[in-house]
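Lecture notes, unit on binding sites. The following record was shown on slide 14. It pairs a sequence with magnesium ion.
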Amino acid sequence: MIAISGLTKSFQNGKQVLRGVDLDIQTGESIAVIGESGCGKSVLLKHIIGLLHPDAGSVVVDGKSVHTLAEADLYALRTRFGFLFQSAALFDSMTVFENIALGMVENTSLGAAEMERVVEEKLEMVGLPGTGKLKPAELSGGMRKRVGLARALATNPEYLLYDEPTTGLDPVMSNQIDALIADITSRLNVTSIIVTHDLFSVYAIAHRVALLHDGRTYFQGTPDDLRASQDPIIRAFLSRYETENSR
Ligand SMILES: Nc1ncnc2c1ncn2[C@@H]1O[C@H](COP(=O)(O)OP(=O)(O)OP(=O)(O)O)[C@@H](O)[C@H]1O
Ligand SMILES: [Mg+2]
């Protein structure tokens, strides 16, 4: 379980992005985190894996307080996480195989044959068998996201963090990625945090949804609760995003 409490963060320009975020994420659930562009969703995810340090507040993962861990313990904790970055963040000079194997090379002592087996297994899982020799430049946007997902899965993480998994994809590809995330979540029994401003993804894959607004967790509940809410801020958010992202 991940317990986020009172998380506060400003950047050098003085703008306070997170103003006391409280959020509990239960083991095995899929939670979507939504909110306006720039409200701090990516910043929140980066705090969970200790890439950013808060001004106040804490993130506790299975009893370990992320921001007080020694560096070695933080690295160990990170190996339990898979992270699909907003831009897929593949290394263009490396092949698909090398991109996916990177985490295993750094964090495990697997031999070459075993690594090849794992990479192919993950590529099959994301629907891209046999593509290990390709370079990222040869892939479509949707394929890049899939490779990013295969890389996130490579070390068999307990927690999967997705930052905008469907942004920039066409509706057909977005539906495929949603189906893939739902399938992976149920098959692998992982805990997923999906940052998105795609409401279709929320309704398709999330057990629960949290809306960030004004630096805080403004709403938490099921997707049905969200949809039924009469709160004016939630209604305004939903109507804006429903018209912006139509599939
Ligand atoms: N490393 C950083 N240094 C300075 N400011 C930052 C940094 N990272 C994020 N910010 C600022 O924090 C705010 C929140 O950024 P964040 O990337 O979390 O937004 P977001 O909710 O993920 O938006 P989007 O939906 O567009 O991805 C923005 O104003 C951004 O400029
Ligand atoms: Mg973001």
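Take-home: The CA atoms of residues 17 and 38 lie 8 Å apart.
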